[in-house]
Task: structure prediction
Amino acid sequence: MQEELTSIKTQLSKQKRLRESYAKLFQKLKQQTGIVSQQSLKVDFQDRGIKIEQLEAEIEELSSRHDHIQRKIDQARPYQTRGY
Result:
């Protein structure tokens, strides 16, 4: 009977150590996941990516308009120097 009790205690100790090691591993993996594990941060990150794409497209459009206006100004300059 004593040997059986000792065996059960030994198994219980091993199970507790195993559980602790899994808990540590889980905590480590949870820290490594960062944004992926937090839905609100993930959504915010995706929204910011979409906003950045929109702003980059707007920059291209404004740059194109600016170049067009600048060309028109450059074309009009010879006419401004007539001294009317």
The chain has two helices and no strands. The chain has two domains: 1-35, 38-77. The longest helix spans residues 39-80.
